[in-house]
Amino acid sequence: WSPDKATVVFVLGGPGAGKGTQCQKLVADYGFKHLSAGDLLREEQDRPGSEFGEMIKSYIKEGTIVPMEVTVQLLENAMKSSMDGGNAKGLFLIDGFPRKLDQAHAFERTVVPSKFTLFFECSEAVMEKRLLHRGETSGRADDNIESIKKRFRTFVETSMPVVDEFEKQGKVVKVSAERGPDEVYDDVKRLFKQRGV
Ligand code: UP5
Ligand code: MG
């Protein structure tokens, strides 16, 4: 497997901004492989025999960032098996990552530099409403008001510096994520075209 052949687009935005929703649409239209760091961590948490299960559980509930070694390894494994398994072009949407500077630097140094970051802008009021609504049925341990507030705080303090750094490199594509999913997606498609995707 050759990670340097992969094309990686990072997908960032606050909790509930709609990263997963928009990634699903992009998968259907562009043939990207969607890798959500949060989903990979939740799978690892539930994997029988995982040495990281309890640790992941407490980080997710507290809305803090799991030590990067775990997440980078999960992403690298998933990219490898996707490319070995037929994703020859190696087109990846990496959703909800990197959300701390150390992860960003480690991934771009040891795996592959990103092409750009798709960033969804959304107010906390809108995100909170979406997450509380989803929490009625999602079963996610962090879709409750206490965890949501902690996730917002981590996003502002720890994850926004990553977006700011990529922005200085001219590698951020910003989309307003407050309208309905289809309106947001129209903007995403237009901006991808501008970026030559
Ligand atoms: N919805 C979506 N778009 C909508 C729209 N345009 N209009 C109206 N409603 C819309 O959407 C959320 C909800 O809103 C859904 O009900 C949807 O239908 C509706 P979704 O697409 O799921 O939003 P998303 O941005 O993906 O929200 P998510 O809750 O997944 O974001 P988080 O970033 O909080 O969650 P993630 O799974 O990425 O991370 C969870 C935790 O894992 C983190 O808090 C952290 O503890 C840990 N983590 C790490 O430690 N390290 C990592 O690198 C990554 C995660
Ligand atoms: Mg998500």
From TrEMBL:
What is catalysed by this protein?
A: UMP + ATP = UDP + ADP
Looking up InterPro entries in the UniProt record yields: Adenylat/UMP-CMP_kin, Adenylat_kinase_CS, P-loop_NTPase, UMP_CMP_kinase
Cofactor(s) required for function per UniProt? Mg(2+)
Which keywords has UniProt assigned to this entry?
ATP-binding, Cytoplasm, Kinase, Nucleotide-binding, Nucleus, Pyrimidine biosynthesis, Transferase
Q: Which GO terms describe its cellular component?
A: cytoplasm; nucleus
Q: How is the cofactor bound?
A: Binds 1 Mg(2+) ion per monomer.
* Residues binding a ribonucleoside 5'-phosphate, per UniProt: R42, T64, I65, V66, G96, F97, P98, R99, Q103, R140, R151
Q: Which CDD domains match?
A: ADK
Name where it's found.
Cytoplasm; Nucleus
Residues reported in the UniProt entry to bind ATP: G16, A17, G18, K19, G20, T21, R134, R179
Q: Where is this region: NMPbind?
A: 36-66
How is this protein organized at the quaternary level? Monomer.
In the record, the note on similarity to other proteins reads: Belongs to the adenylate kinase family. UMP-CMP kinase subfamily.
What does the function comment of this entry state? Catalyzes the phosphorylation of pyrimidine nucleoside monophosphates at the expense of ATP. Plays an important role in de novo pyrimidine nucleotide biosynthesis. Has preference for UMP and dUMP as phosphate acceptors, but can also use CMP, dCMP and AMP.
Question: Record's domain comment?
Answer: Consists of three domains, a large central CORE domain and two small peripheral domains, NMPbind and LID, which undergo movements during catalysis. The LID domain closes over the site of phosphoryl transfer upon ATP binding. Assembling and dissambling the active center during each catalytic cycle provides an effective means to prevent ATP hydrolysis.
Name by which UniProt lists this protein = Uridylate kinase
* Native organism: Ophiobolus disseminans
Its organism's taxonomic lineage begins at: Eukaryota, Fungi, Dikarya, Ascomycota, Pezizomycotina
